[in-house]
Every structure is written in structure tokens, then in C-alpha cells.
Amino acid sequence: MAEPLVKKDDDRDDEDYSPFLGIEKGAVLQEARVFNDPQLDARRCSQVITKLLYLLNQGETFTKVEATEVFFAVTKLFQSKDTGLRRMVYLMIKELSPSADEVIIVTSSLMKDMNSKTDMYRANAIRVLCRITDGTLLTQIERYLKQAIVDKNPVVASAALVSGIHLLQTNPEIVKRWSNEVQEAVQSRAALVQFHALALLHQIRQNDRLAVSKLVTSLTRGSVRSPLAQCLLIRYTSQVIRESSMNMQTGDRPFFDFLEACLRHKAEMVIFEAARAITELSGVTSRELTPAITVLQLFLSSSKPVLRFAAVRTLNKVAMTHPLAVTNCNIDMESLISDQNRSIATLAITTLLKTGNESSVDRLMKQITNFMSDIADEFKIVVVEAIRSLCLKFPLKYRSLMNFLSSILREEGGFDYKKAIVDSIVILIRDIPEAKESGLFHLCEFIEDCEFTYLSTQILHFLGNEGPKTSDPSKYIRYIYNRVILENATVRASAVSTLAKFGAFVDSLKPRIFVLLRRCLYDSDDEVRDRATLYLNMIGGDGLVGETDKDVKEFLFGSLDVPLVNLETSLRNYESSEEPFDISTVPKEVKSQPHAEKKAPGKKPTGLGAPTTGPTSAVDSYEKLLLSIPEFAGFGELFKSSAPVELTEAETEYAVNVVKHIYDGHVVFQYNCTNTIPEQLLENVTVFVDASEAEEFSEVASKPLRTLPYDSPGQSFVAFEKPEGVPAVGKFSNLLKFIVKEVDPATGEADEEGVEDEYQLEDLEVVAADYMLKVGVSNFKNAWDNMGADCERVDEYGLGVRESLAEAVSAAINILGMQTCEGTDVVPSNARSHTCLLSGVFIGNVKVLARISFGIDGPKQVAMKLAVRSEDQAVSDAIHEIVANG
Amino acid sequence: MGHEYKDYSKESCPSVKNILLLDSEGKRVAVKYFSDDWPTHSAKLAFEKSVFAKTLKTNARSEVEITMFDGYVVVYKFVHDLHFFVTAGDDENELILASVLQGFCDAVGLLLRNDVEKRTALENLDLILLCIDEIVDGGIILETDANTIAGKVAANAVDGAVPFSEQTITQALATAREHLARSLLK
Lengths: 886, 186
Fold this sequence. Notes:
Chain A: InterPro entries: ARM-like, ARM-type_fold, Clathrin/coatomer_adapt-like_N, Clathrin_app_Ig-like_sf, Coatomer/calthrin_app_sub_C, Coatomer_g_Cpla, Coatomer_gsu, Coatomer_gsu_app_Ig-like_dom. Chain A has 886 residues and is α+β, with helices and mostly antiparallel strands.
């Protein structure tokens, strides 16, 4: 705009001068009245719109009424022929995101512009209309959009194509009809039209693998002009490669030649996209990697920071899987340690740490020490993690690396950084026995001056576990007792527990620890006093809980064998009475939990923030419910309740799901019914179960639901007897029977007379997994060795052709219904074999462990070897039975 | 495999999460967000504050600079008292982002006739907003060539007579020729 919005002659010296100085919403809204003038002043109107946009941009909001008023006023401006003003009108309408009924007001104006002779009008009107429109209007303008896609003017074509990409999210069926036009646009000579057309065409076809493959085949042969379109093509090609298998005879990868040719493209973005794609190929060979690494190495010494960053970031990733392939770049990488851009320097350092060899460790550490002082905490954490893995790789170098960690631990830093260092030291202590004493000592020093309660308590806990096992436990006592004197209540309480551990496990220290614990009896905090009292009484000799010393230690310091959440729910449900709370009634089953760690692949929950706990279980509430029904009271202890299984489609008249409750000699089906029809009241609701395909089951009781009003769920039950302790399976068909009464919606009163009716539900199966509780073990190898091979059974099975190894593994886990241990449910993408560790409790409370080794060959034939150990040979056999029949 | 597929399709088209133009104190001159990652005004301001603080001490005057934090890649460039930023997810091709940023900076330079500073930018805020509108539409890159962008914006200027670089004129001629061809073909 040529003319400033406010006079500026005398404000020249003012640094803070702004044309919007002192701007105020109310005043601008007043000014917007000029939009209604019969003689429109285009320039003035433009200025007012700019002011409105400025306000919105600064975060000012308009009320609903204000927005509507502005919108209607702005629509008047379509009368003006001024192109600049029209452009501002478009922008304003997009910012206001009008409601459906407001959209109608501008639709005809915008449609007129869409067919205007001015290309700029057409392109912008398309973008605005598609942005604000809904599905119904879209069918009216579809014809114009199709024409626009193949328009001669690249701006118009791009506007229609980009709008198509957005509309595909909301109206896929309409946009899919434009395939022919989009395909034509892919051949456009205009670079960006080609890019937008290719993006849209791929999105239209993305669920059709064959079509995508064809698209890639034809385009990789032809000439794609635009670098952006070429980048897209590289992405689609990688996708096709990912989904097709390698040619087994020649070991050739389809389309690899295309990717390699792109490394010689003239646009840097294409070269980089191709190099990155090659490094990310699953199971990439070093022969395939070499050309990609070579171009990335050239980028490392570029004068452009963006290029250096992109290259070093990619090489950093490659170093995780193929460290040797990156070593050639080490010299270029070392010069990047002093890069002005700290992100680049950090990536270079961590890459070097991953690829470095034993002899270069000391030199690297020297360079890093200088570098650490001037980078941000988040970069420091990355470096700490890299040093940790380096140390695990070269345990002999632990001394210099541990010294480095302890020196940075003493320096300033935030919680996350300190935690990363402490975690690393803890891991080194665990994995490198020689590092233990010095590591513990560094941690002791650290808690002397640690401002983070969380870290102090975690370290104290760790000291309590590891300290007593060292050669001279007494030297830690001073550090721990100092915490009792100097710290807040939380830290004091955990210091008391740590002291008690030393007392319990080191006999020679016991008398001295007792003196210290007795002093804690006068602490100002009750938790600290309680702990001291408990420990003094328990370890002091006349124990109440266990007879032997071992029992006492197990009681005080042993791990809880129930998930904490389950304990919490049980305690909540416990009503104080004569009966004391019994921990053995707490269910041990770990409810399956969503993968919280998925976000950080490859990051194992190591260090102090050890295992996670599952979410609350519904088992307790089921148990209560079932106990309240006299018919089921004699069934004994509830072994397991399944997750609800839907027996109706979503949004049907009656919604029914079922929970399978498993007892030793019985099964109870709990049908949860919901009536979704306001005009109906159901009475005497029963489920008629046909168990003819479940021979071992016979119905013993059925508990109908007396009434089922609208939208107020109720339960009906059916109980079956089955052979005791046997994992009987079968299929049940279900028919919902009831009396339906009409309800007057006005009064809510039901008719006297009802009609009998029935409703077919889906079938239900009781499967072997229903007899298995998911119970994890913390250390599978120990558990496996302790179980012994007495009741072991090993067998091999062929699984036929499977989609992938991962699919076969998850199928086997599902059939057995056991808990996967140590993250072995995750199969690396290019693995040819995989071992899965499972644990569970089988009906009859028999602990079961299973180790399954899978292998996959070229034509995707999967074989598995299943080794089962349990406390009972019959159970081991039963597990094999499940697999053999599954 | 099903859901995995969908994820890749999302990544497959390069996308921009925001374009920011801040002043030398981190205050907004013009911003545009194309993502729900920052749902509220205060979330947006917090992001701008942290991106400004993290890049403030760097020298991004001669070359486009880059940083990565909180799962985003940000490319940026400073001209006088103006700080230009383009943000994307951390999986995005850095060089594509740099081309968007370069297009933005250079187009602003053309539109402000090389007088790239806060005061001029605010005086011509309409041009800046139109410029952003011509670069990215709903996160998808529309155009990265500075001359084309500036040409499209300038064609809309109120007086319609703002002269631009020679290239723009050639382009204007090219479009004119295409107009002619179109009407002849009809």
C-alpha cells in the first residue's frame, strides 16, 4: 500500500513508531461502517480491513455479534471493482471463518468470481470458497473445480488442487471423482501444478497399493520437473519399496536405481530427500548406503547451516544402526564440534560418540568438556545419553566417562538434565561391576547438595539396595544420616528406610544403625517417626509377621507382587470391619495398557524411573457385583473377568455387550444391555443361550433383568457349569428375549399391555485365553531358571504364510492371552527371527512361562518353537494343546 | 499394517506448521498458524516466545539458520529488526523448509523495495499478510519463488502500479501471452 495508515511526519525519531499505535477494537469496528457507504472508497476500506486483520493477528477476538456484523459489512465490498480491495476481502472472509448460514450470503459472489475473466479472482475465489464451504455446496461447484484443475493458468490450477487436498479430508467421495483431471494436471508443465497434482493424486489413491505402485512406476521413468514434486515421488517410491519384498534371487531392490539417480539431481532438496530415503530403507545394505553417505558427507562442509544440519542429523540416525558406514565422515564431523550452530555441534558430538572407537574416547571427552558449558540443557541431555551408551560399549573406559559424568553432575543444571546424569550413573553401576563403588560415591556426594527431592529419594532407595552389598557399607552411613538431619520430611523418611536396609542386611552395622533410628523416633514428621518405629520393631528381633529373619526382610523390603493400582482399588473398596484387609485378595492381573512408550521408540524404561504401573482394574467391581447374586455365590473364587465383547453393532436399537466371568468349575456371562429407544420400556429381559456348539457347558442358572427403561443400562446373567479346572472352549449363540411396552413420550408412562419380542445378538466364544491371567514377571530369565525344566514341554509348529513376522507374533500372543515380558512383543521391522517371552497364571492358579522363537523365510512361511514351563506338566501340555488347536 | 500406512500418507506431503514474522523484541508483526498444535492464543504466544529466545543470540543474517526443539524444526533468518521463522514437524525435509523461508524473506524484500524493517512492514501490513497467504495454504506449500509471490501480491496492490524486478515483468508478459492463447483456443 502506497500510503501509510497514519500520518507519520513528526514521529520520525520515535523508535517505537507504529502505524497501529493506540489502535482500539471498538473504534475500528466503528470505522468499518464505511463498508456500507453507497460510494465505496476502496483505499479507505482496504485500510480498515488491514486494521481489522492487524487486531486479529495480535490475538484480539471478536464476539459472535461483532464477527457477524463485520462479515455482513465486508460482503458489501463485492460491489467494488477494485482488485486490491477484493484481495483483502478474500483474506478477511477466511479469517472470520463464517458459519454455514453466513457462507450462503457470499457463495454467489464467490461463484461469480470463480468464473471471472481475471485469473487472480478465480484462483482466490476457489481457495476462499473451498475453505469455508461444506459438502452440500461442494456438489454445486464441483464442475467448476474440475475445470479449474486443468486450467491453463497455473495459479488457478494450483488453487483448485490444493483446495482438493484439503477437501479430501472432509468430502473424500467427491474429490475422488476428480481423478482424471488430477491425472492430467500431473503432466502440467508448471512446476507447482505438477507438485500439487501429484500430492492430491497420491492421497486419492493412497489406500490402493497397486495404483500407487503404478503411479510410481510411470513417473520414475518420465520426467518430473519440479523439485518439490520430485521429493514427493521419492517419498512415494520409498513407500512402495517398503511394501514390496526384495527380489530374492538377485538381492535387488525395486526402484533403487531411481533413488540413486536422484542423488545426482541438481536441486539440493531432492538430493537430500533421496539420501535420507536410502538411509531409512529397511534392511539397507552397506553397498546401498555408500552413495547416500557420500553426498551427505559433502553437505557436512557446506557453507549453509541448513545443509550441514540436515546432513549431520541424518548421519546421526544412520550411526545408530550402521556406525561403520559413518566412520568415513568422522573428520568432517569433528570440525563441526566448533560449529556456530549449537544444534549442529551437538548432533556432531553424539554421532562421534556413537561411531568412535575405544582409542578416541579420551580425546573426544576433552573436546566435549569445553563444549558442555555453552549449550542448553536439552542438548546436554542428548550428550549424556550418548556418553552412557558409549560407556556400555567400552566398559574399560568407564573411569574417564564416570569422571566426566560426576564433574557435570556438580555443575549447574535443571532437573531433567540432572536426572539424565543420575540415570546414566545408575545404569553404569548396574552393568559395569567395577564402576559400582565409584558410582555410588559420586551419588552420595551429589545428594549432599541436591535441590531435587525426587532425585534424593530415588538415590537413597538405590543406595539402600546396592550399598549393603559393597565391600565397606559403613562409609555410606554418614551421607545417609546427614539427610536425616538436614533435609525435608520426604527425604528424611526415605533416608530412614535406607538406614534400616543397611541395618537389616549388614549384621555388623546393626547396633549402630539402631542408635541412629532411635533418634528418628523424635522427628517432627509422623511418617518419619512411623517408619523408624516399624523398622526398630521388625528388625529389632521380636517380629510379629514372620518367624524367620528372611520373612521379615521379605515383608519390609520385598517387592509387592500385586500391581499398585489394583491394590489401590481394593483398598478403596475395603470397608472397615472386623475382617482385616487381606492383601492376597488383591487381583494380580495387569490390565493391558495403551503403549505409553510408543512415542519414544527404542527408549527402554531404564534408570531410576523404573517400571510403570497399569491403570485401574474393573475386576473388583465385578467381584462385588457377582457376590451380591445368591445364585453365583457357591461358585468359589472368581478367576478372571474378560474385557466386554460387543454383541451388537454400534447404534442399534438395543446395545448389548458381554463380560465372561471365569470360575474354576463355572462360567458366568454378564450381558450389559442398553435400551436406546425412548418410546419403549423393556421388561423381563433374558438372554436365551444356545450352547449346542459348546458341549462341555451346561446351563445352571439364568437371572433375568426385570425392567430396562430407556438409556439406563442393566445386566442379565446366565451361568454355565463346566468340568472343573479344564479350559473348556465353545461357541454360544445368543437371543435377547423381552416384553416390550410402549411409552408415551409426553408423560413417560408405559402401557399396561406389552408384547413379547426377541432380538438376535451375535455369537460369543469362550476361548483358551479366557483361562489365562496376564501376570508379568520382572526378570524373565530368573523366573525361567527358577521354574526349572521339570514340567517343560517343547514343540515346533508351522504357522504357514503370514503377512509379516510381527503379525504372526501378535497372533500367537493373542491366542495364549499371556503377558509379554521385557518388551518382546515389539518385532524390529526387518527381523527375520524373533523371540517372545510370555508369562501368565493359568486356571487353577498355576504359573506359566513361555518362550517362543519365531522364524520367517523368503515366501513368508513362519515357523515357531514353543517352550512352556509351568508348575504342572498337565498345564504345560494344555498350553501346547491351545496352540495346536488354535 | 493399515494404520502405519495412514501415518506415512500424512507425512508424504511436506507441510508447514506456522510462519512467523516477529520484531527484534519478539513481538508479533504478522503470524499465521496452520496447525492445531497450539490451540490457544497463549500457547501460540508461548511458542513464539521460546522460539524467539532460542534463536536470539544466533547470527542468522547472512544465511538461513536452523534449530530443533520440542519436536519441531524451525528455520529462520533475521533482516534488520525483523525475525522471519518457518516451523514444521521434526521429520520434514529441512531444505524444503529453507526454500519456503527464503521465498518469504525475499518476497518481503521485493514488496518493501528492500526497506525491510519493522516500521515499513507495519506500514505495508496488507502486503505482508497477502504475501503469507500466497506462500502457504492450510499448511501446503503454494509457491516458493520470491518473484512469483511478490508478483501475485503486487498485482493486487491498490494502486496497481508498484514496479518490481525485471523478472516480474517478464512473468507478467508470459501470463498475458497465455491469456491470449486461451481466448484464441476457445
